[in-house]
Amino acid sequence: MDISEEEVAMIAKNSAPPRRRARAYNFRKPRLLSQDQLRLLNHVHTGFARDISVYLSAQLRSIVEMSLVTVEQVHYSEYVESTQAPSALYVMEAEGQSHGIILEYDPRLVLYTVEKLFGGHGSFQQDPREISQIEQRVMARVVQRTYRGLEAAWEPVFRLALSTKSFETDAEFVQIIPGTEPAVVASFEVGLGEHRAVLRICYPYLIIEKILGRSGIRQMLSRQTEPVDPKVLAAYEDSLRKTEVELKAELGRTSLSLQDILDLSTGDVISLDRKITEPIQVVVGNIPQFRAMVGRSGTRKALRVLEVIEPSASDSAEAPETHE
Predict the structure, then answer these.
(1) 20 domain residue, yes or no
(2) Which of 5, 35, 115, 144 has the CB geometry, 3.0–4.6 Å to 120, for a possible disulfide?
(3) What is the DSSP track for 253-272?
(4) Strands across the sheet with 247-250, in order?
(5) Coil/strand/helix, residue 230
(6) Are 294 and 303 in contact (CB under 8 A)?
(7) Please, which pLDDT band fits residue 24 given cuts at 50, 70 and 90?
(8) Do you find a cis peptide bond into 227, omega within 30 degrees of 0?
(9) 286 within a domain of the structure (yes/no)
């Protein structure tokens, strides 16, 4: 069989190992965060988003969905340029840190929150306006709770003590670090029904470097692997023993065509794959746990356990469906 040169070239191209594509590297903006640090930052802020969404849902008497969108490294000047005025910028002071941290609330979210706290229906304005002094005071309690949620999210890694240093409506007037210095920005999306708002936290990289240095990550890993207090472990075990689970007795199985099922009527008998004299399976959470015989205990139907089924990898990986 003759093969043309074009076919030979096509075969060689398909059989050749895929070439790795080179990534562009910007020496003016080096990547300072490692993969471990990014994973840790995502973990911390995902927990923060979950906590604040529960709090806002309770305060606003409506479902609030808050999720982490991204954690990225930028120049501080890029963050300032991306912030639209007017905004609601709370400059946080972290105890023991020489630089501030910015908590940026979408002003539309602030106005919506204030209206809901006063018992209103909550209108979501398309064109934001500056937050008044009275609205700032009403919002102060929500902002303080946001601080506590952020402190709790960071607690396993680093202990933060946050307080408000100042409030600004224009990022041009907030200079926590020089514009050419790197910063880390965590961006969140807040869902209020059909409306969407933004919440962002801007950290100077110097703070992140101090918090998430090798010692910081090692500290978190050591806290995760340290032995559990015996009293705490006993409390967990006691709680688990009192937990109620559903237990089902599987009398047998069979297969029917869809037409057979449609033809079923009152009085029809369906044959199963197990005889009356054979033990049946007892499942817990759709996983077989016991073999038992059907019987009676007084006036009630009962099961007598004959054997405990040892769990296997296949049972835990794939839970069978049961038919009673």
Answers:
(1) no
(2) 115
(3) -----HHHHHH--TT-----
(4) 247-250, 280-284, 287-297, 300-308
(5) helix
(6) yes
(7) low
(8) no
(9) yes
In-domain check, residue 213: yes
Residues 123, 204 within the same domain: yes
Which residues on neighbouring strands pair with residue 184, listed in sequence order? 73, 203
Domain identity same for 225 and 277: no
| Helices 107-117 + 133-154 axis angle, to 10 | 100
Q: What's the DSSP call for residue 177?
A: S
Helix-, strand-, coil-residue percentages of the chain, each rounded to 5: 40, 25, 35
In a domain, 319, yes or no: no
Query: What confidence tens digit (pLDDT) does each residue in 111-169 have?
Result: 999 988 888 877 788 888 889 999 999 999 999 999 999 999 999 888 889 999 999 99
Number of domains in the chain: 2
Q: Sign (positive/negative) of CA torsion 204, 176, 159, 198? A: negative
Q: Which domain holds residue 105?
A: 35-230
For the purposes of burial, counting CB atoms within 10 Å of the CB of 20, is it exposed (0-12), middle (13-18) or buried (19 or more)?
exposed
Does the pTM surpass 0.85? The reply is: no
Domain ends where: 230, 264, 292? 230
Same domain, 299 and 212: no
